[in-house]
Write a structure and sequence with these properties.
The chain is built from eleven helices and 19 strands. The protein is an alpha+beta fold and 457 residues long.
């Protein structure tokens, strides 16, 4: 009973006791496969939700584009589609806004501390005065520029440039105001240093406002970056071109709107493909690891297909006579394989001829996006949404199986220890018997008999 036979016997008994654990681990593996599949499905719903988000209101659904004609090199324009409106405007940029800029006399070495410690006093157009201290170690051209740039209160910024036109003293300090516009005009700064070298301003350009015209009306602005120049239309003036007007046209961007419908079709197809795949089974399919026959998926497919088939009012919510718009009219159709196809050319043509009606049908309060969003919310809503409940159910089953495995593992370990203890006692008893037999044999042998004779052998 000792040695390998003992260990083999224990292992065989434990193997038998552990069979239920293997069965539970198999069940857990199948639930984990279902969870992985479920997470994949949730990802597809996330894509559908994102696509719908782009068209739940008229402002979100529509897209705008700007055509600047001959003004492309003169201005940059960005449009906030939530505020901007379509329209055409005549523009002309006569003058750019500018900052006060100054340049100093020249010096031989930009790093030589020749000015000594001191300060720079700067006055603005409105009479405000700022004093910027300069230490001994910063009393070079580059040091002065650095002192100006480090000081958050300084109305001037500094840089050092090399002017090859003056080879004997090419290094100069260039100063510029922090802000552009005539109201930000900076007076000539006062340099007060203790060293022998003197720095002075050799030339200066004054600040100025930008001037432009809109539909022939002159406009002046303090900056080249004009927020809400028109409602939702932001301008950045790049170049002045007097007497060269250009036309800015803001229109609906049908291409981008078409891209939204195309994206929605793709996302719906991904959801439908998943559901169809789950319900496509044969004799080899392990339905315990899939969602085959799941009624919630079948209901979801039914609702999505109905939403695509139905018509939607192409007018204001209170217009009872608004015509119904069907997606088939827009190039969105079901194919024989059960998936959607999108005929972009047909959609764009219809959109250009009747944008407002289609926009209402897609994004209005009673439109397609609202209908589909309601369907999606019923499944994805946190807490009591169908998918949330289903996910929680899978997690609970995995948790229960883990608990059962833990409980059974503890019982097996206890059983193993019990078996080991029993066999140990048995081995101990057998050892004692063997020793007693040896002692008895030796005793009888000493007396002229044998154990076999004692037993009648």
């Amino acid at each position: 009973m000792g040695g390998g036979q003992f260990k083999q016997a224990v292992a065989q008994l434990i193997e038998i006791e552990g069979q239920p654990i293997k069965a539970m681990q198999g069940r857990k593996a199948k639930e984990e496969m279902r969870m992985k599949l479920f997470q994949e499905f949730k990802t597809k719903f996330s894509g559908l939700d994102k696509a719908l988000n782009e068209m739940t209101t008229f402002r979100k659904f529509r897209e705008l584009k700007v055509d600047l004609g001959d003004g492309t090199n003169l201005v940059n324009v960005t449009v906030d589609k939530d505020k901007a409106e379509t329209g055409q405007y005549q523009l002309e940029v006569s003058q750019l806004a500018a900052k006060t800029s100054l340049i100093s006399n020249g010096f031989e070495d930009p790093n030589e501390t020749i000015f000594g410690a001191g300060f720079i006093r700067v006055e603005t157009e409105n009479g405000e005065s700022t004093q910027i201290p300069v230490s001994e170690k910063d009393s070079s051209l580059r040091g002065i520029a650095s002192a100006l740039n480090r000081n958050a209160n300084s109305p001037l910024r500094g840089a050092v440039i090399k002017d090859a036109a003056q080879p004997d003293a090419p290094w100069k300090l260039v100063l510029s105001a922090a802000k552009e516009g005539a109201s930000q005009q900076i007076q000539t700064p006062d340099f007060n240093f203790e060293g022998a070298a003197e720095i002075s301003i050799a030339d200066q350009h004054d600040a100025q406002n930008a001037t432009l015209s809109l539909n022939g009306f002159p406009i002046e602005t303090e900056t080249n970056d004009i927020t809400d120049f028109l409602p939702g239309v932001n301008f950045h003036l790049k170049q002045a071109s007097p007497d060269h007007p250009f036309t800015m046209t803001i229109t609906e961007d049908y291409q981008k709107v078409s891209g939204k419908i195309k994206g929605l079709v793709e996302q719906v197809n991904q959801v439908l493909q998943f559901i169809v795949k789950q319900n496509t089974i044969d004799e080899k399919t392990d339905t315990s690891t899939t969602f085959a026959g799941d009624t919630s998926l079948q209901s979801m497919e039914y609702q999505l297909r109905n939403a695509i088939h139905d018509g939607y009012p192409g007018g204001e919510p209170d217009d009872k006579n608004a015509p119904l718009v069907h997606l088939t009219e827009l190039g969105v159709e079901f194919e024989k394989n059960g998936l959607l196809t999108f005929k972009e050319e047909k959609f764009n043509k219809t959109l250009e001829s009747n944008f407002d009606s289609i926009a209402q049908a897609m994004s209005g309060p009673n439109g397609l996006a609202t209908r589909m969003r309601s369907i999606v919310d019923g499944y994805t809503r946190i807490g009591n949404g169908t998918l949330s409940v289903k996910e929680q159910g899978i997690r609970e089953r995995i948790k229960q199986i883990d608990s059962q495995i833990d409980d059974k593992t503890r019982l097996v370990e206890q059983k193993k220890q019990s078996i080991v203890d029993q066999f140990s006692k048995l081995e101990s008893s057998l050892g004692n018997l063997q020793r007693q037999q040896q002692q008895l044999s030796a005793s009888l042998g000493g007396g002229g008999g044998s154990i076999s004779q004692l037993l009648g052998g």
